[in-house]
Amino acid sequence: MESIQHRVFQYTWLMCGQREDAEEVAQETLLRVFENFDQLQDPARVRAWVFRIAKNFCLMKHRRSVFAPEREVSLDELLPGTEDVARSSQLEDRSEMPEQRLLRAELNAQLERAIRGLPETYRSVVLLRDVEGLSTAETAEILDLSQDVVKQRLHRGRLALRKSLASYLGGNGEVKQK
Amino acid sequence: MTGHVHSHHAQGQRGPRCLEVFARFSEYLDGELDEMDCRLIEEHIKDCAPCVEFLRSLRRSIEAAHAYSAQVEPAQPPPELESRLKQAWQEALRRRKSA
Q1: How far is C-alpha A9 from the chain's CA centre?
Q2: Residue B99: what pLDDT?
Q3: Prediction ipTM score
Q4: A107: chain B residues, CB-CB within 8 Å
Q5: CA distance B94 to B92
Q6: Cβ neighbours of residue A136 under 8 Å, at least 6 residues apart?
Q7: Distance between terminal CA atoms of chain B?
Q8: Residue A9's closest chain B neighbor by CA?
Q9: What's the average model confidence in pLDDT over A139-154?
Q10: What are the mean pLDDT values of chain B's consecutive 10-residue runs (99 residues total)?
Q11: How many angstroms separate the CA atoms of B71 and B63, rounded?
């Protein structure tokens, strides 16, 4: 039970942005999941089923709450100039530094900010595909999208994430002072 | 093609070929491209260091997302709701076993 609680809360935490909203949506989701568990026909699809319920509760909360406005991100905005390349290559070096745990925590915090900063259409896809590890087909089913649209949104969301994470590092690879 | 692409890089821009493969990097990393499209990308990046660097950093940020784990835990639900959740969970397990 703890495992499913953690996964659901992690999803709602990144989708909703507000802790109280995330907790409320996670609780509503878990209750719905547990109370309707016998309706799940195929146990192999449990993750898709759970996240579909979570997504629906997030949407309902979205209608009652203030979320980031919808915005299309153009590929041109995300395409790096060559000056970006040296900085982005330092992203790779970070994971090999000795203070790995501390850096991981910092990277997680940066990831949270970057994911929450994505337009909702990209955020929902990146969360399911890259954070929760669902397949393109499962994500398409949960979000009622075609697989092609999932792929396109995933790519744009990833490019935006990459850009945010690259700018997290200063010119010498050190964490920027906030 | 290579010379053309590199002349764009020298100006801090991307050539048309870069833009074409750039749009498909995610599918490439996810192994969702067919063999011919994979080969086109690999042919291009063989001679394009900025695209290789970009692909590498994109892969690292995807890996960071894969490894993400929320550092915060949800607050304990109110006692009444917690008891309802536990009961619903026990009931779900019981129904599952008897099915």
Answers
A1: 12
A2: 67
A3: 0.76
A4: 64
A5: 5
A6: A129, A147, A150, A151, A154, B30, B32
A7: 64
A8: B74
A9: 96
A10: 42 68 93 94 92 91 88 78 83 76
A11: 17
Higher per-residue pLDDT: A171 or B23: B23
Give percent of chain A with pLDDT exceeding 90.
42
* pLDDT bracket for residue A145 (50, 70, 90): very high
Q: Which two tokens stand for residue B96?
A: 């599952």
Give domain status of residue B71, yes or no: no
Looking at beta carbons, which residues of chain B come within 8 Å of A111? 64-65, 68
Query: Is B86 within the bounds of a domain?
Result: no
The answer, for B20 touching chain A at a CB cutoff of 8 Å, is no
In the CATH scheme, what is the code of domain A2-64?
1.10.1740.10
Q: What is the CATH code of the structural domain delimited by A75-168?
A: 1.10.10.10
| CA pair distance B16, B56, nearest whole angstrom | 20
Cα dihedral sign, B8-B13-B19-B21: positive
Flag whether residue A118 sits within 8 Å of chain B, measured between CB atoms: no
Q: Report residue A90 as tokens.
A: 């330092």
Chain A residues 4-43 within an 8 A CB cutoff of chain B? 5-6, 9-10, 13-14, 19, 22-23, 26-27, 30-31, 33-35, 37-38
| Contacts with A82 from chain B: Cβ below 8 Å | 9, 12, 50
* Angle, CA B63 vertex, CA B23 and CA A33 arms, to 5°: 100
